[in-house]
Amino acid sequence: MIKKLKMEELNRPSVEAFKEAEKTPIAFVLDDVRSALNVGSAFRTADAFGCAEVVLCGFTAQPPHREIMKTALGSTESVAWRHFSETQTALEALRTEGYILVAVEQADASIFLDQIDIDQQKGEKFALIFGNEVEGVSEIAMEMVDFVIEIPQFGTKHSLNISVSVGIVAWEFVKKLRC
Amino acid sequence: MIKKLKMEELNRPSVEAFKEAEKTPIAFVLDDVRSALNVGSAFRTADAFGCAEVVLCGFTAQPPHREIMKTALGSTESVAWRHFSETQTALEALRTEGYILVAVEQADASIFLDQIDIDQQKGEKFALIFGNEVEGVSEIAMEMVDFVIEIPQFGTKHSLNISVSVGIVAWEFVKKLRC
After folding, report:
1. Nearest to A174, CA basis, from A103, A116, A111
2. E strand intervals along chain A
3. Average pLDDT estimate for B145-174
4. Among B2, B49, B178, whose Cβ lies nearest the Cβ of A109?
5. Nearest chain A CA: its distance from B97 CA (Å)
6. Residue B121: which pLDDT band, with cuts at 50, 70 and 90?
7. E-assigned strand segments in B11-161
8. A155–chain B Cβ distance below 8 A for any pair
């Protein structure tokens, strides 16, 4: 019989230990994301995967915020974040800091997520850009990115929910950069 | 300049075409999931990844339901689903139908998601079991499963959101079984 682990058996770090720990070299960039629930979920995923930071752009909601708290469950305390009024300014700053800029979008020259070629040994860091629920990643961001990743999909709907897309794309990077 | 694709350029199948198409051989089993928003999100992910079905157990909400609709965005029309009052009965039925039973849980003898060994060539199909938001996968289900998968995590919080976990685990199977 396989036994479930109790919270104390998971050996989760404290907020202080998390802040001092080495991070997975990825940042989530939320480009005019409308739903604060999606923002909170991105924080929770960033905490779980030990990500470097969350970058909130434009009208994307910022902590403290009631709906962010609902889905972040306290992870806005552990995960580093900052806000930029303009996505362009955010991406310029991230590029200066050495981030490779990656849009997650359905596009004509995208790389499917199962085909990405990244290697822990190269020491690269990645800013993963997720766009608005309806409009997707902004045109200004699309013009600046180094490449575009697309999650292969076979269904009737346009796309996956942003929270789910953040989790899937983050996992693929975490696996290659940290596991 | 990389161009975003329009809805009509994505060549998404109609609901009728989806129903007739060959499916990714995975089912999502929701074992007493409290949030109907999580249920709707599981439907949307099942649609996107062309999954065989969604199996709702116990008090997990069923369509038609206002909160499921909010996050499913119509995917309850494309994705096959059924409900069982008891998770045990559901898992017995799925096993009889040839499904391998897999819990997604933090457990003492779990296999980390990056280590799973599955192969498209074997023609296997998998029932992926996700548990209640607080209690996790039920003990009765844990006793019945063939193996347990755990998503590696490095954060301060207990776990990822269910919707996000469904997406991440489904993606890993979709990649190995379909991409």
Report:
1. A116
2. 24-31, 51-57, 81-84, 99-104, 111-112, 125-130, 147-150
3. 96
4. B2
5. 23
6. confident
7. 24-31, 51-57, 81-84, 99-104, 111-112, 125-130, 147-150
8. yes
The predicted-structure confidence for A118-158, as pLDDT tens digits, reads as follows 988 889 999 999 999 999 999 999 999 999 999 999 999 88
Are B13 and B47 within 8 A, CB to CB? no
Tokens 């490449």 correspond to A147
Q: How many C-beta atoms surround the C-beta of residue A56 within 10 A? A: 25
CA–CA min distance A45, chain B (Å): 6
ipTM greater than 0.90: yes
How many CB pairs below 8 Å do chains A and B form together? 200
Give B5→chain A minimum CA distance, Å.
5
What separation in angstroms does the CA of A65 have from each of A32, A50, A95, B39? 16, 22, 28, 25
Query: Residues 6 or more apart from A101 whose CB is under 8 A from it?
Result: A91, A94, A95, A127, A129, A141, A144, A145, A146
Report domain extents, chain B.
22-150+159-178
> What six digits make up the tokens of B47?
């649609």
Topology of B22-150+159-178 in CATH?
Alpha/beta knot (3.40.1280)
Based on its alpha-carbon atoms, the radius of gyration of chain A, rounded to whole angstroms, reads 16
Region A52-73: mean pLDDT is 97
The answer to whether residue A16 neighbours chain B at the CB level (below 8 Å) is no
Sign of CA dihedral A157, A163, A168, A169: positive
CB contact under 8 A, B47 and A179: no
